Amino acid sequence: MACARSGAQSGLRYGLFGLVAVLAGATVSIDPADARHHWSGYKHAAHHRNGYRHVARAGRSAHVERYSPSSASIVIDANTGSVLQALNPDALRHPASLTKIMTLYLLFEQIEAGKVRLDTPLSVSVHASEQAPTKLGLKPGGMIMVEDAIKAVITRSANDVAVAVAENVGGDEDQFAKLMTQKARSLGMTRTTYVNASGLPDDNQITTARDQAVLGRAIQERFPHYYKYFSVAEFVYHGHAIRNHNHLLGSVEGVDGIKTGFTRASGFNLVTSVRRGGRHLVAVVLGGRTSAQRDAHMRELISSNIKLASLGQVGPVAAEKAEPVEAARPPQAALPEGDAAPRPGSTEPIRPLLVKTVTYHTATLR
Questions:
Q1: Which of 71, 157, 266, 291 is catalytic?
Q2: Among this protein's residues, is 198 annotated catalytic?
Q3: Domain range for 104
Q4: Is 97 in the active site?
Q5: What are phi and psi for residue 347, nearest 5 degrees?
Q6: So what's the pLDDT on residue 318?
Q7: Which of 96, 134, 143, 352 has its CB surrounded by the most CB atoms within 10 Å?
Q8: Same domain for 46 and 89?
Q9: Which of 61, 71, 82, 97 is catalytic?
């Protein structure tokens, strides 16, 4: 029977709380917004990605790690860049499909530079077509137009489309992931490392609530015309209507995007942008226990902070550093108590279970 992907790719280890394994033959529910690879029983395989070895051991095909990370969140005044509220904003977490925000950032750069157009066809490789659900169902050797790719990534969170974008822009997914991490550094996302374009589980793909807020603000300030795609509620592809996974669109006043994400290792994630009467917030929730709990948390953050935001742009916009940056490795900066980042080249999991909870207001966004 198919099961959720095991081994190092499965995400964060439980740390002090141990592992929960699902017996062989059990049915595993997988969130449609950001599903894992499925592997058949008693298969032994190994592969390399960016120098990290990921091994699936024989007889462990029905193993699933369940993990509920402590919540991390941040609310920034997008007109000034100041932090209005934060909880564990620098604790390391897995981005899940929030990864695709950066994937689209790099695609928007290509459009802005005139290297591709909205009607440019992107080729689909075997590797892209083989990505785990959720996917659009692209076939090897097929094509998808850039505009359709954007909408598919935003609404369905299609992993096959995200990889097709990566391969057409970066040559291959590994190289594209290096470009993603370089872009993160240039934006000031100091604790984010990307190793794939989709957000499918990988121990070494890490981020923070603060870094996602930086990206959520930057992508709309840099690409206001293309950012509008994040407000698409429904995408019709080959006669099939695909609804956006972001349930706050159309239900919370002023919400104009941007992205949801989920894996067992990350919990339920959400980056949201909301504009009301000249005020503009970008907020992030990581590690929700359910999508409903995550959305309710986001609604509360918006409600309690929107009136604290400034009226109109009064501060500097998000900007990239002009100097070149090197391909980044997993961050080695001092971590909050209980956090641990993997050493470069290691397969050690990050362990964000014992983070110290710190809540503060009116700080400056780094």
A1: 157
A2: no
A3: 72-364
A4: yes
A5: -110, 15
A6: 65
A7: 96
A8: no
A9: 97
